[in-house]
Write a structure and sequence with these properties.
The chain has helices at about 15-30, 75-90, and strands spanning about 30-40, 40-45, 50-55, 90-100, 100-110. Helix content is about 20%, strand content about 30%. Strands 1, 2, 3, 4 and 5 form a 5-stranded antiparallel sheet that branches. The protein has one domain. The chain starts with 15 loop residues before the first helix and ends in an 8-residue tail after the last strand. About 20% of the residues are buried. With about 120 residues, the protein is α+β, with helices and mostly antiparallel strands.
Length: about 120
């Protein structure tokens, strides 16, 4: 079971693949990331996931202010996503819904023989 209060983590403490996932979410603003592979508890970008952008044509996307920073505190949603990746270890995230550069919902592919947490 996930902790109700994720531990506070910093961007600079993340592995390269986890930093890449956070930066991807920040850069796409509103979108869905589909078919992200997870190996040994790390997101894998080869093959790259599919990104479906959700664009509003009546306004410009400003992006996350943290995207320009070398380090920052991770928000609760990012910490929870990374905790899920820790639990998956080896598998696939079918979809990550990103809103305002923050992962909000996750659809995880699970084997029915494995306990679902």
């Amino acid at each position: 079971m996930l902790n109700s209060t994720p531990k506070v983590a910093r961007f600079c403490a993340l592995s390269g693949p986890r930093q890449a996932l956070v930066r991807l979410c920040q850069s796409i603003d509103y979108a869905q990331v589909e078919d992200l592979q997870v190996r040994d508890g790390e997101p894998v970008f080869d093959p790259p996931p599919t990104v479906l952008l959700d664009l509003k044509l009546d306004s410009d996307s400003s992006g996350r202010s943290e995207s320009e920073l070398a380090d920052f505190a991770l928000c609760e949603e990012v910490c929870r996503l990374l905790e899920r990746i820790d639990q998956i270890q080896n598998g696939r995230i079918r979809r990550i819904e990103v809103r305002a550069g923050i992962p909000r919902r996750v659809l995880i592919e699970a084997n029915v023989m494995e306990p679902i947490r």
